[in-house]
Amino acid sequence: MKAWLSVLITTIVLAGCTEDIQGTQSFDPTAKPVEVPASGRNNLKGSVAHTDFAELVRTSVATSPTTAAGTANVLASKSRIDAEQGAFLPQIEAETSLTSGGDPVPILRLSQIIYDGGKVNSRVGLRQIEARQTWLSELSELNALSFEAIETIVNLDRNRRLEQQARQNLDRTDILVDDLQSRFDAGAGSVADLLAGQGRRSNAETELAQAQTEVELATANWVEVFGTRPGVIPTIPPAPALAGSSAHEMVERSPRLRTQVAVSQVRQQEVIVAERATRPTLSAILETDFDQGFIDDGAQARLGVTVPIYQGGSSRANVKTARANLQQSQADEEELRRELQRNLSRALEETNSIQRRLATARRAVEINEQALDAARGQFNIGRSTLVQILDALRELNLAQVRVIQLEAQARRAEYAVLAVTGDILDALGVAQPTDPTL
After folding, report:
1. Does some domain include residue 90?
2. Predicted confidence (pLDDT) per residue in 203-213, tens digit
3. What is the pTM of this model?
């Protein structure tokens, strides 16, 4: 008996030291791999990581509660892998039973799985894919947080510039309307011109009040994103251009799409887990009751076989559910791929369109500045009126406002492209968590 016990204990120890004893695969060989850019591959032409602008964005991302929660989720996913792998190791249990006479009998049990049809391996594989999905989801969240910070900076910078422009326009309008008032008081102007000028001043005051409101709203959003009130806004550099890549390659490296692909892998692994759940389990078991019970010689070694025979149809239902979830996830994956392709195409087209409109708007500013100077020159020689100068000033203000808005749109559109492809993290130098499966 002792010889057999020695052999069995040796078998248990050897079984607990290897995961390959079952000879099964953790992953389905037909599963589609997650497409990940090659390590160290540079998808960008240049970088803004060393600018004050990038430092501000990184600070926002690093101090976000969402980032802290995501980092904790990645660490937890690694722990879940370790916990599942623990099933490969010998298990020790203690229990107490009572004899017919009411005497307690302590029992110590050592067990080791020898073969379970790949059930443990499939669950470990599931936890590994789930961990990778969690990691990719965190990258996607960091990507979104970075772009949110950029939008916040761009919006406040734009609104401050619009406020400054509105104040400048009001100051210029005030000078002209005061001149109109002086001329009217001296009997050299008409009521119509004076009222027109006063109307222009009221419009300029309204525009300034609206611009100030927009600044306050943007400031409140800044506080929400960055946690502090804004100071001087750093210069917003142009986004780095993407290296030569096809639209398909850009979409495939999107963190959102890679996350959804990982979700499909999770669903596929769940099918494998459900299918293997009905396979038998063979375990080596060593028990002792310390010579206080009915076990011969106080210890016994045995092989235990567990075979699920009937579970009310739940196993078959679990497999069908897992397969349905897989089909749904794959459909969601394709839908997201098409959505990202549309978003990328629109972002690229918007970037090109804005640059064309911005060039035209800047030219319009130059022309309107010349028109304003011409109107003043005509006024000096008596061939124009102050109202005509006010008209020229209004057109110049509209052109300058349009330039400010288009410059903000251009910066946003440039970084929106990097947000779609996921390259925004590398462009800004945002710290990224390590893949828990490596």
Report:
1. yes
2. 999 999 999 99
3. 0.80
